[in-house]
């Protein structure tokens, strides 16, 4: 059994906490998922290496269980500056309205190399990647250091490339998932429903698969296990817990039954969130320009979040967000595990013969 | 237990054959699904009432088992004729190339009323609807006549309305599904991954649910059962069977690993098919104008199909089409049922305690 397979088999609940960068994921959430028998994740995206180092230390102070860190693979090159400037001109009125400035549309690599070295030095058990795949050399270094490297993919093609590069496990992100699409290029039309993706990839790839996207209860967890997942990665399902950093104005929206949509309006990269005015007004015009747009809108989003103006900041959430429950992370994780076991037992009995 | 629930519980394999109008579904396929312990469906869309009557008679000659008929709910009003004519001008060169004429962009109601009366008179056991919901009065008539009425939905909102109107069961079509989206209005962005849709609807609606979209093997069947479906509706999974009307040039493409896309290029209504040149060239410009565009492109598609020119006709298929297997319908249905049972048994054992 591979490292990744044995780590996953060792979980008493086949649930991985999703790394929700930018606020919703917290050190407490990661610790609570791991302590509940799942695998908690720190969201390394947007953090500096020193910020991530602090979170790792804090997490180790509250749990002795294994955990993971997620990092964003940097974009290969800066976006077209003209497209960025046309869009920033369009949203300049939004910044005025929030009494905020637009940030610099900076291209950066999210401190990736420094965070990678930190995670290696810290011997974090599991490292997952979003927006692409590390090089074969990097994956080999991680393997030699005893880390398990999980690569997020959205298509069979990406899954093949991640396996060839030496990934230890794959996180399959279905089109249902909240937050940024983890496709390796920011395309409009790629992506699959989660069950189809699990079956397409599972029919060809022998790595352990972690299913992500719209999994908010134990029945959905049982479903992805049937479709070949070793575990489910859940994020939105934990967003109403006290451990989550979800702001109050977003928590309130979970009861409103709005649809979710994919948009580039906030970050310049496709991401799924609860539909609001900013998405409706600017989504059609936002270019593919990440991280430039994300950096530029950051102050205005922060200001809107502080003010509770939920029509102006990003409300990342998966398609099944309405099923998210309140309560401590430990209770949610345990309840999902128990529900999944019950569903599997009942159906195995019902279809025992035939 | 409702009629629909007991019909579904009586199936020895929880599989419903999808009605694939326009060729792929055949009387033989419907009979084979029902004989294998599932529920076969005739695709009533595009047929005249007399044509459908002949198919019902033929089906009853080859099986004594229950079966269903699917009908298309007519569009509420004709499309904008200017949008239609601009698009037909764009694709006139395609017709020339096929040495075909474009058909008349006719608005019609697909002989709906006559087919509805026929199905009532014939006491067909199950009637399913696509593209909308019959009136309360119609659903009451069907119920009084002892027919089970299943309504296809793509969102929780449609599910609520179908329940309120008196549907006996709901077919939940996930975004993965091949062929036409069965949304009640032809929108760009609505729809859900199948598991999220099952959980969202199942958390609120008590009707039996049939899951449709990307279900090509027993593991996917087990997955949708876990997520709350009473049965899976499978279409693409049967398209390589000898009973299917799938043309040879489309069968060959199943081995090619092309992506699928949603398009209005062929019919004026969003539908999922394997990506080809016609979709790539015209998809972005096709208006929402069904059935007008469908009627207009019909001769050119028929001609391309005859010639085996798979770049020019509609290659409807679901996201998991690459997993479709060859072999008789009875074998596919039985194998999927056996695989699902095995998956459920193994997982129930693996997660028995904890």
Report on the architecture of this protein.
The structure is a homodimer of 354-residue chains. Chain A is an alpha/beta fold and 354 residues long. Chain A folds into 2 domains: 3-74 and 109-246 and 323-350, Aldolase class I (TIM Barrel), CATH 3.20.20; 78-108 and 255-316, no CATH class. Chain A is built from 14 helices and 11 strands. Chain A has helices spanning 3-9, 27-35, 49-62, 81-90, 92-97, 112-122, 136-144, 156-165, 194-202, 218-226, 248-253, 277-282, 292-307, 329-350, and strands at residues 15-17, 40-43, 67-72, 126-130, 148-153, 169-173, 179-180, 209-212, 231-234, 260-263, 271-274. In chain A, the strands form 2 sheets. An 8-stranded parallel β-sheet of chain A has the order 1-9-8-6-5-4-3-2. Chain A is globular. Chain A starts with a helix and ends with a helix. In chain A, 60% of the residues are buried. The mean pLDDT of chain A is 96. At the A-B interface, helix 9, helix 10 and helix 14 of A face helix 9, helix 10 and helix 14 of B.
The spatial strand order of the largest sheet of chain A comes to 1-9-8-6-5-4-3-2
Q: In whole angstroms, how far apart are the ends of chain A?
A: 34 Å
Pair with the biggest interface: A-B, 57 and 57 residues
**Overall pLDDT score of chain A:** 96
The CATH architecture of the largest domain in chain A can be given as Alpha-Beta Barrel
- What's the order of the H and E elements of chain A? HEHEHEHHHEHEHEEHEHEHEEHHH
Cα gyration radius of chain A (Å): 19 Å
**Quick one: CATH class of the largest domain in chain A?**
Alpha Beta
The portion of residues forming beta strands of chain A comes to 5-15%
Q: Determine the oligomeric state from the structure.
A: homodimer
| Structural shape of chain A | globular
Enumerate the spans of chain A where pLDDT stays under 50 for 5 or more consecutive residues.
none
* Domain count of chain A: 2
Q: State the helical fraction of chain A.
A: 40-55%
Number of helical elements of chain A: 14
Described by strand count, sense and barrel closure, the largest sheet of chain A is:
8 strands, parallel
> CATH superfamily assignment of the largest domain in chain A?
Aldolase class I
- Number of strand segments of chain A: 11
User: Which secondary-structure class do the elements of chain A indicate?
Assistant: alpha/beta
The name of the CATH topology of the largest domain in chain A is TIM Barrel
């Amino acid at each position: 059994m591979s490292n990744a397979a044995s780590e996953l088999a060792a979980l008493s609940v086949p649930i991985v906490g999703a790394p929700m960068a930018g606020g919703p994921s917290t050190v407490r959430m990661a610790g609570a998922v791991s302590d509940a028998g799942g695998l908690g994740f720190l969201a390394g995206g947007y953090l500096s290496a020193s910020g991530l180092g602090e979170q790792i230390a804090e997490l180790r102070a509250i749990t002795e269980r294994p955990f993971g860190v997620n990092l964003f693979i940097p974009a290969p090159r800066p976006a077209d500056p003209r497209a960025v400037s046309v869009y920033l001109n369009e949203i300049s009125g939004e910044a005025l309205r929030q009494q905020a400035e637009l940030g610099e549309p900076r291209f950066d690599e999210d401190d990736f190399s420094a965070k990678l070295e930190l995670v290696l030095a810290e011997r974090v058990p599991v490292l997952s990647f979003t927006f692409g795949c590390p090089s074969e050399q990097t994956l080999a270094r991680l393997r030699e250091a005893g880390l398990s490297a999980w690569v997020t993919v959205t298509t069979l093609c990406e899954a093949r490339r991640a396996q060839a590069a030496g990934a230890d496990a794959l996180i399959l992100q279905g089109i249902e998932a909240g937050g940024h699409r983890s496709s390796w290029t920011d395309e409009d039309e790629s992506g699959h429903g989660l069950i189809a993706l699990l079956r397409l990839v599972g029919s060809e790839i022998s790595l352990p698969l972690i299913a992500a996207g719209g999994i908010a209860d134990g029945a959905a967890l049982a479903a992805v296990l049937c479709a070949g997942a070793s575990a489910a990665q859940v994020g939105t399902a934990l967003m109403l817990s006290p451990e989550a950093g979800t702001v109050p104005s977003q928590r309130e929206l979970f009861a409103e039954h709005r649809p979710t949509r994919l948009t580039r309006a906030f970050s310049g990269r496709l991401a799924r969130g609860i539909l609001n005015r900013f998405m409706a007004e600017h989504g059609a015009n936002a270019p593919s320009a990440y991280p430039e747009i994300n950096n530029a809108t950051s102050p205005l989003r922060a200001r809107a979040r502080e003010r509770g103006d939920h029509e102006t900041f990003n409300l990342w959430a998966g398609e099944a967000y309405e099923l998210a429950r309140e309560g401590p992370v430990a209770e949610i994780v345990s309840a999902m595990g128990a529900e999944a076991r019950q569903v599997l037992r009942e159906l195995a009995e019902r279809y025992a013969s035939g």
